[in-house]
Amino acid sequence: MPVANNQLNLNSSIINFRLPSIDGREYSPEDFSDYKVLVIIFMCNHCPYVQAVISRIVRLQREYEERGVKFIGINSNDSKEYPEDTTEKMKIYYEKWKMNFPYLRDKSQEVARQYDAVCTPDIYVYDKKRILKYRGRLDDNWKDESLVTRQELKEAIESILEDREVSSEQNPSMGCSIKWIKN
Predict the structure, then answer these.
(1) What is the mean pLDDT of the chain?
(2) What DSSP state is assigned to residue 145?
(3) Rounded Cα–Cα distance for residues 20 and 130 (Å)
(4) pTM of the prediction?
């Protein structure tokens, strides 16, 4: 059963973190301070919703990198119960989809909890001042790209780059629930 995110934290400041990446480095939002827009996506390897849109996400990063937009992927799923989401499998997934942005591991799930992330993909878009301006879906048809009529993430990015207000009409992202570690 799909889960939808909430948008209660719009206009809040970015929450700092430092997480390991599959490339062996650690990253934090501060590492991307030169970018005008920072897009953080809570995602994972096994979710059919993410698998359906990952090529679109990669394409958007390629399209906007030179315009000052950086994407970061974060996998917070319990990899003990969901072995498709181990760091080793993240590396395979990264290569398979030719991902072009850091893919971070939130093994403790602390960052996902701080962000109130609930699903994969769960998308957060921050402006240059690192204020949350968009928390919504990628577009209006996750299943079939050929049926997309509105690219909502792209619209939000364009608004920020053009110093316009991001539309307050934001449709929640929908996807698999984050797989929380059971205590």
Answers:
(1) 95
(2) G
(3) 21
(4) 0.95
pLDDT at 7 over 80: no
Q: In this structure, what are the phi and psi dihedrals at residue 69, rounded to the nearest 5 degrees? A: -115, 130
DSSP 3-state of 136: coil
Domain ranges of the chain: 3-11+34-177
The Cβ of residue 122 has, within 10 Å, a number of other Cβ atoms equal to 28
In this predicted structure, what is the pLDDT of residue 132? 97
Multiple choice CATH, 3-11+34-177, 3.40.50.360, 3.40.30.10, 3.20.20.140, 3.40.50.300: 3.40.30.10
Residue 125 host element (H or E): strand 122-126
Query: Pick from 127, 34, 14, 128: which is nearest to 74 by CA?
Result: 14
